[in-house]
């Protein structure tokens, strides 16, 4: 998985203001793609299924983020770079989600 490639697809979505993609350990697959998104225009949350479907039409299935988590702000360091190590910790702490709730996660 190339996080930069997945992020570039997410940025093509007109509702996405910022995006960060990390890998999350998975017992069955080894790793899964986990996306954190901040929506444009102060919109707090969009249906994650729309973003997942948007990615599905543009990426191979193994690169489609599952789940997509909306955040009000993405964590940044003192130079304003997104702290992916922090997001990896958040992704790990969320644990495995049941399949039917895979795309409805939300973090603040």
UniProtKB/TrEMBL annotation:
Q: Does the keyword Ligase apply?
A: yes
Q: Which Pfam families match?
A: AMP-binding_C
Name the InterPro entries for this protein.
AMP-bd_C, AMP-bd_C_sf
Record has Ligase as a keyword: yes
Where's the AMP-binding enzyme C-terminal domain? Answer: 5-79
Q: Give the GO molecular function terms.
A: ligase activity
Q: Which UniProt keywords apply?
A: Ligase
The family assignment reads: Belongs to the ATP-dependent AMP-binding enzyme family.
The protein's name in its UniProt record = AMP-dependent synthetase and ligase family protein
Q: What is the lineage of its organism?
A: Eukaryota, Viridiplantae, Streptophyta, Embryophyta, Tracheophyta
């Amino acid at each position: 998985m190339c996080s930069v490639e997945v992020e570039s697809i997410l940025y093509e979505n007109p509702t996405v203001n910022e995006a960060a993609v990390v890998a999350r350990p998975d017992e069955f697959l080894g790793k899964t793609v986990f996306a954190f998104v901040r929506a444009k225009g102060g919109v707090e949350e969009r249906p994650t299924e729309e973003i997942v479907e948007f990615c599905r039409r543009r990426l191979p299935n193994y690169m489609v983020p599952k789940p997509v988590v909306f955040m009000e702000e993405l964590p940044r360091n003192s130079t304003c770079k997104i702290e992916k190590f922090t997001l990896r910790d958040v992704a790990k702490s969320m644990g495995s989600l049941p399949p039917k709730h895979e795309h409805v996660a939300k973090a603040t």
